[in-house]
Write a structure and sequence with these properties.
- This is HEPN domain-containing protein.
- This protein is mainly alpha-helical and 158 residues long.
- It has one domain: Four Helix Bundle (Hemerythrin (Met), subunit A).
- The chain is built from eight helices and no strands.
- It has helices spanning 2-28, 43-63, 68-71, 74-77, 80-88, 95-109, 112-115, 124-139.
Length: 158
């Protein structure tokens, strides 16, 4: 079990490094006027983001005592939706982030962003907000009523 916690901490550390790179890639990518990715050169940001989401979900689960072996089961290992479903048994995940995870999961599980295939490219802001929510859940402990993420309103929004 101690090794599982260490693995979770390692996943969280790696996720933090990837998150920093994702922000840089998104800041530098060509975007349409509404902020969407404009060129296929954005694929590395989305690949890193879906991998980051996997690491964050696994870190949050390991923190809550889910055995590492359970996360290595073939139907769970790279399945973001299954990982989120497991985590939802411990914490509340917003509907917006669950929709993001559902959008990313098929292409992540099938490795489409690595080897080619149909890709879903959500709005970069939505991507970052979802990653930040799951990161916050890595910091929240226990199963109490305050064990959910309440995002702050966007600056300038009503």
């Amino acid at each position: 079990m101690a090794d599982d916690y260490l693995t979770g901490a390692t996943y969280l550390m790696q996720a933090g490094a990837f998150r920093s790179c994702i922000s840089t890639l998104i800041d530098e990518m060509d975007k349409t006027p509404n902020g969407m990715a404009a060129k296929f050169a954005c694929l590395p940001a989305y690949f890193l983001a879906s991998h980051d989401m996997e690491l964050l979900l696994k870190a949050a689960l390991l923190k809550r005592g889910t055995p590492l072996q359970q996360l290595k089961v073939p139907d769970v290992r790279h399945n973001l939706e299954k990982l989120a479903e497991l985590l939802s048994g411990h914490v509340n995940i917003s509907d917006t982030t669950l929709r993001l995870i559902s959008a990313l999961s098929p292409q992540h599980k099938q490795h489409f962003l690595r080897y080619g295939g149909p890709a879903t490219l959500p709005h970069p802001r939505w991507l970052l907000e979802g990653l930040d929510e799951i990161l916050q859940l890595c910091a929240v402990s226990g199963g109490g009523p305050n064990n959910s993420f309440k995002p702050k309103p966007l600056r300038g929004s009503a």
